[in-house]
Design a protein that fits this description.
Blueprint lengths: L1 E9 L4 H11 L4 E8 L5 E9 L2 H13 L3 E6 L5 E12 L5 H10 L3 E5 L3 E8 L1 H11 L4 E6 L3 E4 L5 H7 L23
Antiparallel strand pairs: 1-3, 1-4, 2-3, 5-7, 5-8, 5-9, 6-7
Amino acid sequence: MRHVISCLVSNRSGVLARVAGLFSGRGFNIDSLAVGETETQDVSRMTIVVNGDDAILEQIRKQLSKLIDVIKVSDFADCNVIERDLMLAKVHAPPAKRPEIMQLVEVFRGKVVDVGPSHLVLELSGTEDKLEAFLEVLRPYGIKEVSRTGRIAMARGSQGLIEASKRGTSRAKPQAPQPPQASPPAQGEP
């Protein structure tokens, strides 16, 4: 099963290596990994996409939570989530073909970010499927180079991951209901 895991971590050196090490130590290939600062300068968000067995990934999620620099871990597997990738693509574009290519860019809601004598550099953001479809229509023109950021994701709804971590909850991974606890016996009762 495909898992999109979001981790809030302290913005310190070595954290990325420790987090990635947990996955590689279990034999999981990371399909996508994106890291960047959040709205709080000393906190970064890692978005990790992996395919694998649910039970083993649950173990990894628990082990991630135990790392000192990890603030919050959320698995978006069963969550309504917004996902985006960013891609830059350099395509062969002689002057006669540029209008066609620019029309495709417009259809996909991309941007032309650089123009050279024989090429265009195009920027596109969206879902992985959208980016793959865009690359397919560009192939006949001659793709020279592609660079992608990897997936970033955020759960839909008003609560943010940092806000959830302060309260000890996360909308991305609801906690299982806890059974009611018995009230302590009154004084004098056994």
